[in-house]
Amino acid sequence: MSEFLKIKGYQVIGIRRRSTQETECPPVEIIEGDILDSGFLREVVREIEPDEFYHLAAMSHVGESFRIPSATLQTNILGTLNCLEAVRETGCKFYQASTSELFGDSPPPQDETSPMSPRSPYAISKLAAYWLVRNWRERGLYAVNGILYNHESPRRGADFVTQKVCTAAAEIKAGMRKSLKLGNLEVRRDWGHAEDYVRGMWLMMQQPGPDDYVLATGESRSVKDLLNAAFGCVGLHWGNYVVPDRALYRPTEVEHLKGNPAKAEALGWTRKWTFQTMIEEMVDAAAGRINFRHR
């Protein structure tokens, strides 16, 4: 997101929670802080006077949210509330990173009018955040919910299934490992590229008035389809290496997410990446990391 905004001519300032671990930082000014600290947020907003506020911070791993539900709800609900309150009287536009997980077992394809039926602590917390944004908008704030379906890139975290699969394919090809354990292989997701989706997020914020939008490809694929694509990139058949593990199933699963992006497309949003080119990029990046480590 920061790279896209800089190309558009923005001065970009990011907030990052302090950590003892070294993490890759975007080429922008970084302020260390915590969205759970409301006083800190108000002070930062007063000092910077932003034109647009993109709230992307969250405890965002669905599976992990079952293990730490309290921390998930606190970060995703209270953190959103603090951000909304920080910008409420500034005239700043506000973007909230919402999620397709809100729809749960609502029949596909889902759009902005589909019933919401969250099936994880993560989804429940994000539904509360969604309604906070709607309420603050009704009170006069330019506030947008971007209901994004899964968006991937080589920067995806290692514990998300797309990155797990693409990295495993590259490592197995390189002889670094022999197998990959995964949970439910039948679930279906609507996977798109993060580069396309950040462009859509920005478009939402350029409209005369605020609204909520689904960003999706309109296509769904199973985890098996993902495996076929990733292992196919390295000339292997996934069936020889993938080990199903019931312990990795979610306590309550969302079986099928597929979005209808017609409302966003009416804004002029189109996607450039196909599922295949996205997976090829991720596998190539994983192979590049392996080669870099072995120089």
Report what the structure shows.
This protein has 295 residues and is α/β, with parallel strands linked by helices. It has two domains: 2-152 and 191-215, 3-Layer(aba) Sandwich (Rossmann fold), CATH 3.40.50.720; 161-186 and 221-255 and 273-293, UDP-galactose 4-epimerase, domain 1 (Alpha-Beta Complex). It has ten helices and twelve strands. The strands form five sheets. A four-stranded parallel beta sheet has the order 3-4-5-10, with helices on both faces. It has a two-stranded parallel sheet with strand order 1-2. A two-stranded parallel ribbon has the order 6-9. The mean pLDDT is 94.
Secondary-structure blueprint:
Elements: H1 2-7, E1 13-16, E2 29-32, H2 38-48, E3 52-55, H3 62-67, H4 69-87, E4 93-99, H5 121-138, E5 143-148, E6 151-152, H6 161-173, E7 180-182, E8 188-189, E9 192-193, H7 194-204, E10 212-215, E11 221-222, H8 223-233, E12 242-244, H9 262-265, H10 275-293
Helix pairs in contact: 2-4, 4-5, 6-8, 6-10, 8-10
Relevant terms:
single chain; 10 helices; four-stranded parallel β-sheet; globular; 2 domains; Rossmann fold; UDP-galactose 4-epimerase, domain 1; 295 residues; alpha/beta; two-stranded parallel sheet
Describe the structure in brief.
The protein is of the alpha/beta class.
Any low-confidence stretches, pLDDT <50, length ≥5?
A: none
Q: What count of domains describes the coordinates? A: 2
CATH topology of the largest domain: Rossmann fold
The top level CATH class name of the largest domain:
Alpha Beta
Structural class, please?
alpha/beta
Strand order of the largest sheet: 3-4-5-10
β-strand amount: 5-15%
Question: What level of helicity do the residues show?
Answer: 40-55%
Rg, rounded, reads 19 Å
> How many beta-strand segments?
12
The shape, in one word, is globular
Alpha-carbon distance between the two ends: 31 Å
Number of helices: 10
Helices and strands, in order, run as: HEEHEHHEHEEHEEEHEEHEHH
Please, what is the average pLDDT?
Answer: 94
Assembly of the depicted chains: single chain
Largest sheet: 4 strands, parallel
At CATH level 2, the architecture of the largest domain is 3-Layer(aba) Sandwich
**Considering the protein shown, what is the CATH homologous superfamily of the largest domain?**
NAD(P)-binding Rossmann-like Domain
